[in-house]
Design a protein that fits this description.
This protein is mostly helical. It has helices spanning about 5-40, 55-65, 70-80, 90-110, 115-140, 150-180, 185-190. The chain is about 75% helix and about 0% strand.
């Protein structure tokens, strides 16, 4: 065996993995910028629509298509990179994302089918889970209780978030193909 060839293969794999995370970061930041730019109250066109969680689709994609260790590390990298873009505390975002990640992993083991429809359904559920866990974190640590109106606003956001999930699903898959990342679920299906 050629030890130099193994080293080159390892370096190539590490480079592809780093490229994968970097492209996910760029797409997540772009989605966040779209969310802030088009759905702010100052915008004429979308000001009466509920704001979708544009940034949550990459988080859910990583939760569904990665093994638990790689997924949680990738999600935490995304959340840390998004922290400067929000007024929320990093701790509450991390804890709420951990709850979301755990719920996605649990749903994935219970039932899963590949494709955009499943991804959209999980994004709708994920929007509700994230908002409920965020309210719980704020209630426990900040002694803040959401109003009834805020709770009712969760449902329209959960209904519009799958629209952005549909749009982002294809670039997320493209990133995985470009960086030669085989999703964990496909690996399991090949072994069966």
């Amino acid at each position: 065996r050629n030890p130099r060839g193994n080293r080159q293969e390892t370096m190539k794999e590490k480079g592809l993995a780093a490229s994968n995370i970097l492209l996910f970061l760029l797409l997540t930041h772009f989605a966040s910028i779209v969310q802030v730019s088009f759905f702010s109250p100052d915008q004429f066109l979308f000001k009466y629509l509920p704001t979708p969680f544009c940034w949550i689709s990459p988080v859910i994609f990583l939760s569904l298509y990665r093994n638990p260790l790689e997924g949680i590390l990738s999600v935490y990298i995304l959340i840390y990179s998004l922290a400067p873009l929000t007024v929320q505390s990093t701790g509450s975002m991390l804890l709420s994302s951990l709850v979301l990640f755990s719920c996605c992993q649990s749903l994935k083991t219970r039932f899963f089918w590949p494709g955009v429809r499943y991804f959209m359904i999980i994004n709708a559920l994920g929007a509700l889970i994230f908002q409920a866990s965020e309210a719980t974190v704020h209630f426990i640590f900040d002694d803040y209780t959401p109003t009834l109106g805020q709770v009712f606003s969760w449902f329209p956001r959960a209904l519009i978030t799958p629209v952005t999930a549909y749009i982002l699903y294809f670039p997320l898959n493209l990133i995985d193909r470009i960086t030669q990342k085989t999703p964990l679920t496909e690996l399991r299906q090949e072994r069966a």
